[in-house]
Amino acid sequence: MENHTCARRWIARAGRHVLGGSNRLETLDSKPEPDVAVMSHPDGELFGTDASEPLVVVEVSDSSLRYDLTEKAALYAASQIADYWVVDLEHRVLVVFRDPRNGVYETRETYQPGSRIGPCRGPISSSM
Prior knowledge:
By secondary structure, this protein is of the alpha+beta class. The protein is built from three helices and eight strands, in the order αβββααβββββ. Helix content is 18%, strand content 33%.
């Protein structure tokens, strides 16, 4: 099984309410198709969020790494996506973008395998 597919499946297991692959996510200027979007509870009560609001958006990157770290990050930041993660398959790291302001993310952190990370909203966490 290809690395991209394996990574998407692993990420999807981290959340209960997940959009994967061909589901479009509404942003200000377009409708990108993230590899995985972990959504709040369908009725919005579990995490106190709007049911249509993602807790975290994830892109699994191999050949698209540069695009995902720049253009897609800017698109998601402009749409106020609070947590944007890029799984860098080549370097085996997770790049986490947070704190969107004025179309850019104020925070960018890189996590190594074995790190524990969760979205800034909601009780989901996972080990790499």
